[in-house]
Amino acid sequence: MENPRTQIIHFFEIDTLPTTESPVQNYQTKVLDNDLGQFSTGYIYDCEEFVVRDYNFSYKKDYKHHFITKGNSYIEISFLFNPIAVQDTINTKPNTYLPFHSYVYYTPPKSAVQIEFKKDVAYHNLDVYVSFSFFNEWADTNPAIKEFVRTINENQYAVLFDRGIPLNKEIFSLLDEIRNCELEGVSRFYFIKSKILYLLSILFKLGEYETVVPESAIVIWRKEEIHILQKVEEFIVRNSEQFFTITFLSRKFAINEFKLKKGFKQLYGKGIFEYANSVRMEKARHLIEQQDYSLKEIAYQIGYSTPSSFSVAFKNEYGMSPALFRKQIMALSAM
């Protein structure tokens, strides 16, 4: 019988290689429970173009996972939902992966990898493995992507936007759509592929911001601080019709204003006011689509004192006035 360390190595070796001989087209789960920890892998989709895996695991003691990579022709996109930062070393190069961030990288065959895990931490990441073809068209439009592809072609370890991209509400929503997709066959293939391409476009757009932010502006947050920031976000969403000041939120959640503003932007990709406005506009859009309320009533429901100020905010968010948006919805409904 294999020892626990070997079991873990084999468990993850299998899971980083696509089962193209027998493609997975519906969510399946595999588990491992041994003396070192508990591990679960969700197989969301397998095909030659892309592979999607959902990992949940925890270790019963501090553990360093050592392994040598095997050959595959995929770029990995990791979406990390871990409560703490993860550190690894790839071919002697140290790396740090922040909580609630995404990383795009390529690890060549026969690379020496060491990953450090802490005891009793609930690790969770959703990984998407894509073929090189996903990046070819973008390489000519973005210098960072072009350099990333060049490094891969030289069969070297490569990271795109090495400080990572903070996960935001839009990314969370797309990942949920992939994870919960109930379509089958070719419809499932094109649905998931389209979401992956959309995710990449978002990451590339956010990555443009990352390249101009000085490294000193990036802060690694403690688990307790991340929890507070998540509570702030939940509070804003639940009370989207109200407008809160930074000072009010800082006092309510016992976090200083600097950490609140900086941490929220780093975690959700938008400042507090911008994020709250997006939540309000999304709610307004749904109300307009339902066609049960006048635009004046909707403006008051989401917290605006005048329809004109609501109209300006809506147009800034969606590029058209709420009146024009409703007109288009009604035209589509009549078809």
Q: Outline of this structure?
A:
Helix content is 46%, strand content 24%.
Summary keywords:
335 residues, alpha+beta, Jelly Rolls, Arc Repressor Mutant, subunit A, 2 domains, seven-stranded antiparallel β-sheet, four-stranded antiparallel β-sheet, 12 helices, 11 strands
What does it look like?
The strands form two sheets. This protein has a seven-stranded antiparallel β-sheet with strand order 1-2-3-10-5-8-11, sandwiched between helices. It has a four-stranded antiparallel β-sheet with strand order 4-9-6-7, with no helix packed on it. The chain folds into two domains: 2-214, Jelly Rolls (Sandwich), CATH 2.60.120; 221-331, Arc Repressor Mutant, subunit A (Orthogonal Bundle), CATH 1.10.10.60. Strand 2 and strand 3 (50-59) form a beta hairpin. 46% of the residues lie in helices and 24% in strands. With 335 residues, the chain is an alpha+beta fold. The radius of gyration is 22 Å and the shape is globular. GO terms for molecular function: DNA-binding transcription factor activity; sequence-specific DNA binding. Residues 230-328 form the HTH araC/xylS-type domain. InterPro entries: Homeodomain-like_sf, HTH_AraC, HTH_AraC-typ_CS, PchR_regulatory_protein, Tscrpt_reg_AraC-type_HTH.
